[in-house]
Design goal:
The chain is α+β, with helices and mostly antiparallel strands. It is 32% helix and 27% strand. It has a seven-stranded mixed sheet, sandwiched between helices. The protein has a five-stranded mixed sheet with strand order 20-19-21-22-23, sandwiched between helices.
């Protein structure tokens, strides 16, 4: 199925009906742009986390994982600049009273306009000159652009005053920066070394949308590489390509990925680039790689009073390291994988016979196999096979409905292999049991008779590892 034929309604429909993603607080009418991951979505999400950990922590030299607290000292966010300048350029429609991000209005109107390179004044002038309409009511009558801070603010303790204000973190990166000295000391790490983290972040987005693409609560897979000035440009170029390869190995084709270099850089940044994926709604960022220079550690040194120097044992020089950041949106990555894997295959056009199949890589599919007894009479033996497999891989069991319908259900949730226990497996008084099962492969629908003994090895070889 071509990407242009897919719609977000198809993806959200599959996610809700098959247990991937549900609307948050649904029985109470929901809470705008909050989403709960169901049994299959949670498993898929965790498989992507495991793949990231393997690629970025396990397989890389001098890479260490941390799990920093969501709540941090408020001075952290003053040092990072979030208190002063972490905001969105927003404007209101005077007609229908809806609020919109100015850069989103421009990019939706013309993706080649690159609003990220415009000032607030330039964005307002562009919207005015092109008479960009309100997406809600279609009229062009906006207020001036104002900046709204995106951090969620709360209070620590029983009093609500300025001294007790704390924030829900809007990004994970600061947890890695404030632990730079701790990791370097305890791990005896030498430059270049990296600190990674997977965790929740929160942003008070006024205009979230496109399912799980932009939400107020999300997960990031952060990776910070600390290095000596002079080696930063080479590492920046390396991690751009490293990120692209990671996405391709997960199952996103190269022709639907592209680099988007930032035209307008933050004052501290030396270079910045996004990796974008072609969603059904258009190109969207799923990764950001940045050369942050020595800005972050320098600021934390200034605000904390703690020296953030690194001592080079070879030259006996002290300096503050540069940072190459590579951030992966976990929720956006999962959404991209679902969009890419979703397919409607025509089996017999004359009979209007088709199937929905989720062509996820077996290594990240929620279930690796499903055990299906041909008849409920065979369920006891099939459950023995299920118990045998479930000790080795995530396995589903289904004995409800016809075998054809059960195949279709497993196709739709991306299960790469179905294992059918039939009467030949168990035998009867006339025919001895052959102790074999029929293994059906999801994409080709090819079937093979396989001995139960060693079944797990047969499947593990075909499922593979990331």
């Amino acid at each position: 199925m071509q990407q242009s034929e897919k719609t977000m309604d198809m993806i959200t429909g599959l996610c809700k009906t098959r247990g991937f993603i549900f609307p948050g607080s649904e029985i109470y009418g929901g809470l705008a742009n909050t989403w709960d991951y169901g049994p299959l979505g949670a498993r898929l999400k965790n498989n992507v986390k495991d793949a990231w950990r393997k690629r970025f922590i396990q397989e890389r030299r001098n890479s260490f994982e941390v799990d920093a607290d969501i709540l941090m000292h408020p001075r952290v966010w003053e040092a990072s600049g979030h208190v002063q300048s972490f905001s969105d350029p927003l404007l209101d429609c005077k007609e229908c009273k809806t609020r919109h991000r100015a850069d989103n209005l421009i990019d939706d109107f013309d993706p080649d306009a690159h609003a990220d390179g415009m000032t607030k004044e330039e964005m307002f002038q562009y919207i005015k000159e092109h008479s960009i309409p309100c997406p809600h009511c279609g009229k062009h009558n906006f207020t001036d652009i104002r900046e709204f801070n995106l951090m969620f603010q709360t209070y620590r303790g029983v009093t609500e005053d300025s001294k007790s204000i704390i924030y829900l973190r809007p990004e994970n990166a600061q947890g890695e920066y404030v632990n730079f000295l701790n990791v370097q000391r305890t791990m005896r790490a030498k430059l270049p070394f990296s600190i990674g983290q997977i965790g929740k972040a929160f942003r008070n987005e006024i205009t979230p949308g496109n399912f799980t693409f932009r939400t107020i609560e999300f997960e990031q897979m952060e990776f910070q590489t600390f290095c000596k000035e002079g080696s930063d440009e080479e590492l920046y170029a390396y991690f751009k390509e490293y990120g692209r390869k990671f996405f391709e190995d997960l199952g996103l084709p190269g022709e639907k990925l592209r680099f988007h270099d930032h035209e307008k850089l933050a004052h501290y940044a030396k270079a910045a680039c996004d990796i974008e994926y072609l969603f059904p709604f258009g190109w969207g960022e799923i990764n950001g790689t940045h050369n942050r220079t020595d800005f972050d550690l320098t600021r934390h040194q200034e605000y904390s009073g703690q020296k953030m120097d690194y001592l080079d044992a070879e030259t006996n020089q002290k300096f503050i390291p540069y940072i190459i950041e590579s951030t992966y949106g976990l929720d956006r990555t999962v959404l991209a994988l679902l969009c890419e894997a979703y397919d409607v295959e025509i089996l017999d056009e004359a009979k209007n016979d088709s199937r929905v199949v989720l062509r996820l890589s077996p290594a990240i599919a929620p279930y690796k196999a499903a055990v299906l007894p041909l008849s409920k009479k065979l369920s006891p033996r099939a459950l023995e096979v299920y118990d045998q497999l479930s000790g080795h891989m995530m396995t589903d069991f289904d004995d409800t409905g016809s075998i054809g319908k059960r195949y279709r259900r497993e196709d739709e949730i991306g299960t790469p292999f179905c294992v059918t226990v039939d009467f030949q497996t168990v035998g009867d008084e006339k025919t001895p049991a052959d102790n074999r099962v029929t293994v059906r492969e999801r994409d080709s629908m090819a079937q093979e008779r396989v001995p139960i003994e060693g079944l797990e090895k047969y499947l593990e070889e075909r499922v593979g590892r990331f």
